[in-house]
């Protein structure tokens, strides 16, 4: 963990030096505070929407009928806050699985709800990127952008086929049973079953996907507003195409809180449309910082009552 933090700090320092530290400082200090405040408001809104889509996925399971939205919101905010200090958001997801199992959920059901939340989030990122490509088609001519979108599209399609095709799921079961030790094979079988049960609830999946798209639109709008706050003039279509790809990089369990990797992704992608390194670095850094501010309510929730579900009140919600 310490080595990962030190590596993230080292990468960030290298990027700052390469991008011109004086220019970065000037951009940050001159940023429009009103626009930044609006961006923070959007960050809070997307946190609430993310909690609601997870709540809907939890409710698919029989045990989920005892969990209320307010309780789910508290856990989502608290684990998101704690996830800022763990490798990307993987730590936050592990905490959510743990809290559901403490509440009495089967491990496979708890993991399935979190995986479905993450998978549909990634699919919505892809859909947003494709929409951005239609709004800014010249970006698709860039090999880096085109390959990134293509790889994401393939992975999302393969995952969707696995989730919603009983035949593919059955084949996956046989492969896993033949290649894994018996205990791991049984665990994988239970997980696939739980994920198929989620996928069978079509209405819930449609609503969750719609909310996931709304979350991405909020995040893209947040990036556009932050870019405007520091004087960038790129079109909204550019943000639609590039921000989802940068967010995908943040999902990789490499850095801590997206430090280093986030700024590098924004510099690489926005550099393709002529945005200078200092501006792209500042954009990525401000978004990470504002995201941290947006998770502060989770810190208050954690300090007040911890990160877990209220087991005494859960049945009453």
Task: Write up this protein.
With 317 residues, the protein is mostly helical. The chain has one domain. It contains 14 helices and no strands. Helix 3 (33-60) packs antiparallel against helix 10, helix 6 (107-135) runs antiparallel to helix 11 and helix 10 crosses helix 13 (277-294). The protein starts with a helix and ends in a 12-residue tail after the last helix. The model is unreliable at 312-317 (pLDDT under 50).
Layout of helices and strands, plus pairs?
Elements: H1 2-19, H2 21-30, H3 33-60, H4 69-83, H5 90-102, H6 107-135, H7 143-164, H8 166-179, H9 182-200, H10 202-229, H11 236-251, H12 261-271, H13 277-294, H14 296-305
Helix pairs in contact: 1-13, 2-13, 3-4, 3-6, 3-10, 3-13, 4-5, 4-14, 5-6, 6-7, 6-9, 6-10, 6-11, 7-8, 8-9, 10-11, 10-13, 11-12, 12-13
Low-confidence stretches: 312-317
Question: How many individual helices?
Answer: 14
In round numbers, the mean pLDDT is 79
The helix content is over 70%
How many domains would you count in the coordinates?
1
Number of strands: 0
> What's the order of the H and E elements?
HHHHHHHHHHHHHH
Shape: globular
Q: What proportion of the residues form beta strands (DSSP E)?
A: under 5%
Structural Rg: 20 Å
- Sheet with the most strands, sense and barrel status: none
| End-to-end CA span | 38 Å
Class based on secondary structure composition and strand pairing: mainly alpha
